[in-house]
Amino acid sequence: MIEIENITKRYGAATVVNNVSLVVEPRTVTVIVGTSGSGKTTLMRMINRLVEPTSGIIKLDGEDNRTLPGYELRRRIGYAIQGHGLFPHRTVAQNIAVVPELLSWDKARIDGRVSELLSLFQLDPETFGPRYPHELSGGQQQRIGVARALAAEPNVLLMDEPFGALDPVIRSKAQEDLLAIQKRFGTTIILVTHDMEEAIHLGHKIAVMDGGNLLQYATPAEILANPATDFVATLVGTGDRPFRFLSLSPAGDAVEPGNAEGEAIPASATQRDALAELLWSGRPALPVVNDAGKAIGRVTVEGLVKRASRPAA
Amino acid sequence: MVVRLDKLGVVTALITGYAVAGAPFATFRANRIVAGEPQTLLAALPSWAGPTLLTIVALAVIIGLFRTPSTLRLAASFAALAALFLLIGTAAEHLTPPGNTYARVSPASGFWLLLFAFALLAADSLTRLRPTPLIRILVLILAGAFIGSVLVSGSWDKLSILKEYSARADNFWAEASKHVTLALGSLAAAVIIGIPLGILCHRVQKLRAAVLNVLNIVQTIPSIALFGIMIAPLGWIAANVPGAAEIGIKGIGMAPAFVALFLYSLLPVVANTVVGLAGVPAQANDAARGVGMTERQRLFRVEFPLAFPVILTGVRIVLVQNIGLATIAALIGGGGFGVFVFQGIGQTAMDLVLLGAVPTVLLAFAAAIILDAAVELSSPAHSRTSA
Amino acid sequence: MKLRFPTILRIGILVLLIVFLVRPEWFEPVFRPLTQNNAPVIYNQGSLLTLTLLHLRTVAIATAGATIVAVALAILVTRSFGVEFLPLSRSLVNIGQTFPPVAVLALAVPAVGFGEKPTLIALFLYGLLPIFENSLTGLTTLPPTVTDAARGVGMTGWQRLLKVELPLAMPIILAGIRLSVTINLATATIGSTVAAKTLGEVIIAGLQSNNLSFVLQGGLIVGVLAVLIYDGLSAIESFISRRMGLLQQS
Q: Locate the ABC transmembrane type-1 domain: which residues (chain B) (predicted)?
């Protein structure tokens, strides 16, 4: 659990983060969204003390983050940034091994961990371990950046626009990978982005920041349904709101009894995908199948449209 | 209240403390080449001057020690430097017995350390004030005028370096003019040949590597060897080409020195021309073609003006380098301030060495400041902010 | 195989240089046309090999000292406690470069006497500047994402310096050392005007006795040494930068 209590950061006369408080539940993904200059990155960098707050306290699992020296604290917290920040003079394997080495793990354990992480990110350890960062594609570099952040098995992972430099196709794949890894390790992730779409897709909770202030801290559904201010509403984008809302839940949740003709859609697909398929194929209903491929009912245009409307406050 | 010390101020204070308490201020010698007797600051200066200098120095150190405004620090360091310059002359007056023309008084390590300490403080305050190019040149002119008036006033006449000067005043100006002719003349030749050569290298890819390689290799030949190597071909030309000897081409003397300096100067000029032209944005060139400029118009109206600051940087490198290298010309009879340096080394007369070295350093220093200012004034970033 | 020819050429030049230093008399016919009146063709006032080694030794000592001091200073002014000195150190480097080597050499003589010492001082001071300037450039132009990542993974100040900043700045620092060595190889010859044992002795002997052959021998040895050392250091630099993938960026 991460407790941020009345955190303020000033640079001279400028207040970059203004009296922000929020609690991040363990094993969840929290996304901080805001435009540039909103203070979102500064807020995140105060968690691992890359930036020291002017006032306020941050507690990790109940312990003040100032009890350890900054560098020891940072070794226990994963950190991944836009443009990956890999060390160009070290091989991929050496890059991933940085934190375990700083923590003086023994060599066998480090090697094992490096291979495990490379395999996890679908990169062959034999092939990719000895390469240098510049020999990899942008997507591969980004994966190594995340692998390095996870190397010492941190409970908390901080990510600053980690997918910002990727093209859309690789980006959505990287997002899926991140969600899978979060589920697998149960890591608490705090991710900073300017992209509301990404926030809604990845976050269990979203913190919207503007001008150093925390405007709203809520679940994606809540933010879509009841944006706290006009600024939040603008970020969410009124035109896309119903579709974003549908994208939060799986088609399985919208299943109605009955049958339908034509190609089925898996229950794990989002309701947005289901509606898109319905509209595109011009059918009134789609069959839904579970993971085993067994039909469990159908979704209808009518049913999905109802779900896309603004929930009662 | 916490009083915060300035780190450079601490350094200045330490140097000053040692210079005043632990090092001699001036050296007295019975004649030109015997070993000297070191004199402390208070012993070297007349009874009124010693405490005066100490007071000014102490005040400047205190101002430097605390975090005071840069303008105040600059004023304090200039005041200390001026006091040092003015009072070293009185030390010579004070230490030289009346009527004795053999005795020599020269500044000693304490004086040089004080000079260094306050020059450091002045440089630091000037750097922090970020003076515009024109202000920098103005400061240079004022400093030059100050030193010039001290020289003219005659208050340094009893210092040994000026005794060396008065013994060979005519020679000094002749060598000075040779030195400047060598440095500037070879620079002019290098600019006239080097810039077109650079443009050619920019246009003709194949030529570029070859020309730059040859010029690079020329740079690795030690200056004294290159000066020496030039003797033979120029001697041959003087002997075999009609009229060559009449216009002053000889195997020894200024001609080989001039050619050697010219060869050294070519690389920075050509290389910077090539780099400057290569750095012209492709869009600018494209636009120039797009609006229908001819090749020649594009060169003179677009490429050359944009590359000019880089070319000027090359000229700056060459001028400073040439002023230094021209001292070597003395080894092959080419004249210049090197004459005094090498004579001084030969006679172990260090005052004579200084007579050659100090003007060389001052010339190079002034050239660097003026051309740095010119480079800054000519760069597009500057004209944008001043517009 | 485009690279092949220059490599062979370089090895050839190196071999030629070694042969010339060990058996200079074999080259007598080459230099004979440059002398007059039966003057000695090959430098005969000492061993060329010994002078070359002394020359290299002087340059090596001065450059090693300059490297240690310049890199240490550059590290100092790029740490938070020394950052106050950064602008001043930049100005000093600029001013220092205007001091002609002959002047530095001559001014060092009264302090330390004749011989190798003033030469070492002049070469040391002259060598400082390019190395300091390049180290400063290297340490202040590191990619910000990389330095941020180094802090973010929990490296201490020392670890960041030794494991990330210095290795990344290394190619630029090496370029400074290369420049410094090349300048110093040539400048060391001037040291012989204050009685240092360098190849300058050969050149000066030639100038004094009007013997072009001596001048050429001294000049050529220094020039060839400079070209070979310059090449060798360039090769090391580009190997390191290539490994880091920095070459494509520049």
A: 176-371
CA distances from B245 to B65, B242, B262, C34, C69 (A): 63, 7, 20, 22, 51
State pLDDT tens for residues B277-320.
998 888 888 888 888 788 888 888 888 888 999 999 999 989 99
Position B268 in a domain: yes
Residue-wise burial string across C180-208, b where 16 or more C-beta atoms lie within 10 A, e elsewhere: bbbbbbbbbbbbbbbbbbbbbbbbbbbbe
Domains, in order of start, for chain A: 2-243 (3.40.50.300), 244-308 (3.90.1280.20)
- Report yes or no on B164 lying in a domain: no
pLDDT of residue B2: 62
**Most C CBs within 10 Å: which of A89, A105, A192, as the mutation test of the C interface?**
A89
Q: Is A224 helix (H, G, I), strand (E, B) or coil?
A: helix
Res. B385 pLDDT band, cuts 50 70 90: very low
The model's pTM is 0.81
Q: How far is B286 from chain C (nearest CA, A)?
A: 23
User: Residue B175: which CATH number?
Assistant: 1.10.3720.10
> What is the model's pLDDT at position B14?
92
The fold adopted by the segment(s) C46-244 is MetI-like fold (1.10.3720)
A contact residues 72-111, partner C, Cβ 8 Å cutoff: 72-77, 79, 81-89, 98-99, 102
pLDDT at B172: 92
Q: What is the pLDDT of residues A251-310, one digit of tens each?
A: 888 888 888 888 888 888 888 888 888 888 888 888 888 888 888 888 888 888 888 777
Q: Does residue B182 sit in the same domain as residue B261? A: yes
Would you say the ipTM is above 0.90?
A: no
User: Please, what's the largest Cα pairwise distance for chain A?
Assistant: 66
Write down which residue in B81, B102, B130 finishes a domain.
B130
Contact criterion met (CB < 8 Å) for C153 and A133: no
Statement to judge: residues B123 and B207 lie in one domain = no
Contact A85 C146 (CB under 8 A): yes
- Considering chain B, what percentage of its residues have pLDDT values greater than 70? 95
- What does B71-95 look like in DSSP terms, one character per residue? HHHHHHHHHHHHHHHHHHHHHHHHH
Mutate to test the interface with A, among C151, C153, C248 (most CBs of A within 10 A): C153
Cα→Cα distances A197→A31, A65, A218, C81, Å: 11, 31, 15, 44
Contacts of C153 in chain A (CB under 8 A): 74-75, 79, 98-99, 102, 148-149
Regarding whether B89 and B184 lie in a shared domain, the answer is: no
